[in-house]
Design goal:
31% of the residues lie in helices and 34% in strands. It has four domains: 30 residues, no CATH class; 79 residues, Beta Barrel (conserved putative lor/sdh protein from methanococcus maripaludis s2 fold); 81 residues, Efflux pump adaptor protein, beta barrel domain (Elongation Factor Tu (Ef-tu), domain 3, Beta Barrel); 73 residues. By secondary structure, the chain is of the alpha+beta class.
Length: 342
């Protein structure tokens, strides 16, 4: 004030008026600056938790079928029972299969006997002189041996097939599973392809969830998705997000696998994860000219940054740099371009 007063006193009348106007303009500008407080975005950003309904799906929901035609003798497996791989689920009458195996074995022995004779005749013919045995007879003996070797192979395959049919009379579990349903009963005739039992694989399971398209990116970026059911949490790993898009639900199906012990097949719960992307907290979001956004500080002025994906009362995803000053207090009384005082 002393400097300005001396300037006014020593100047002409017009110079005094000009100095007074400049002083008043500076004072008005100082008074026009809106006091606010700010924080950098990284200090106020939030990382919201996302949750969607999810279900545990067994990768193998199998109907075990008969492979031979036979009458059902016994069904050791009970509905609801957990069976191990290789456990006997059902026994069929093996009588016909055993008879077929015996016939195949007998046919094999007959071919072996013929083979021995043919080989002996061929060896003998080869030892005799060409004057005694004609070239045609020698070729005939060789052809007989080749034909019997081929027949021997056919009969060996027939024996193996018959023996496998005998083994197929015991229906065994192809994997560790829960017996979900019994489809055939003692005394019924089972034909090849007849469903006998329904099994649910309890080792190979995945969690299925419908994820909104806006949340797919955050799910793919997270490292710690969790399935929660019946008061327990199960860590997961994302396997895939299907390329198919559900137009009605605006979602895509996500498939996740258990990182450790899994829940039971069919269990319903929630899939949740923490979004690793920065979001503006809902209490800092304001509306200006019909748009939702946040105020930041640029060159001493308030700048309104619209957030296109923002919704009332929810955190909003943002691409604003993490070190950008965000106006925390005083944001309701300012507009874009206002001078601010911090």
């Amino acid at each position: 004030m002393n400097v300005i007063s001396r300037c006014v006193a020593g100047a002409s009348r017009w110079e005094s008026m000009l100095a007074a106007c400049l002083f008043m303009a500076c004072s008005d500008a100082t008074l026009a600056a809106v006091p606010v407080s700010t924080k950098v975005l990284r200090d106020v950003a939030v990382y919201p938790q996302v949750s969607v309904p999810a279900t545990v799906m067994s990768l193998n929901d199998s109907k075990v079928s008969a492979e031979v035609r036979a009458v059902i003798l016994e069904v050791p497996a009970l509905v609801g029972q957990t069976v191990r791989e290789g456990d006997v689920l059902m026994r069929l009458d093996p009588a016909d299969s055993k008879l077929a195996a015996q016939r195949a074995q007998a046919a094999l022995e007959a071919v072996k006997a013929k083979m021995e004779l043919a080989e002996f005749q061929l060896e003998r013919a080869q030892k005799l002189s060409q004057d005694v045995v004609s070239e045609e007879l020698l070729a005939q003996r060789g052809t007989e041996v080749k034909a019997l070797r081929a027949e021997l192979q056919v009969q060996q395959n027939a024996v193996e097939t018959a023996q496998r049919d005998v083994a197929r009379c015991e229906i065994r579990a192809p994997f560790r599973a829960v017996v979900k349903e019994r489809l055939a009963f003692v005394g019924e005739l089972a034909n090849p392809g007849t469903p006998l039992l329904r099994l649910l694989d309890v080792e190979h399971m995945e969690v299925s969830a419908k994820v909104q398209t806006d949340d797919v990116e955050s799910l793919q970026a997270t490292r710690s998705p969790v399935f929660s059911a019946q008061g327990k949490d199960y860590p997961l790993r994302l396997r895939a997000v299907t390329a198919a898009y559900d137009v009605l639900e605006r979602s895509r199906e996500a498939r996740l696998i258990f990182a450790g012990a899994g829940a039971l097949p069919g269990a319903a719960g929630t899939l949740s994860w923490k979004d690793s992307r920065m979001h503006v907290p809902p209490d800092l979001i304001v509306r200006r000219e019909g748009a939702l956004g946040v105020f930041v500080v640029e060159s001493g002025k308030a700048r309104f940054i619209p957030l296109p994906e923002a919704q009332e009362g929810r955190p909003a995803l943002t691409a604003i740099p993490a070190d950008k000053p965000v106006i925390v207090d005083g944001r309701f009384g300012i507009k874009d371009g206002d001078e601010i005082a911090r």
